[in-house]
Amino acid sequence: MYPVTLNINGDKYNINVRADEILLDVLRERLKLTATKKGCGSGDCGACTILMDGLAVNSCLVLAVEATEKEITTLESLSNGNKLHTLQKAFLDHGAVQCGFCTPGMIMSAKALLDKIPNPSEDEIKEAIKGNICRCTGYKKIIEAIMDASKEMKGDKQ
To answer: What is the rounded CA–CA span in Å between residue 111 and residue 103?
Structure first.
């Protein structure tokens, strides 16, 4: 076991992890942060996307020991009580949520994009979410939701 300090959503967690333990499992099983979904386990679907030091990453591909002292952001941190983040609200308003399994990863990929490029083009949005697979919506509503959220946020980081 290896001692690590994980900075997740503004909170510090000092825990012991196995050398082969992936960050996704630590988030879901050990810390009960279950918004991050476990999909393919091989980095192909994007369901487990989180932000690490502001970059969208697949948490199934990150060993927990590699995440020590990194700034980790999960979907749980975006809403403020009952007040949804602009991206979350846009996804609901545009019907970009159907089964909901891909939604946390899609939103986290979109957040990483909007933090970097406040007014992205449609092509930039497509590029940002290309690692996130959705089997329900056909992406049109997702892209529209992200475009709408970018206009609503007006470049302000939330």
So the answer is: 12
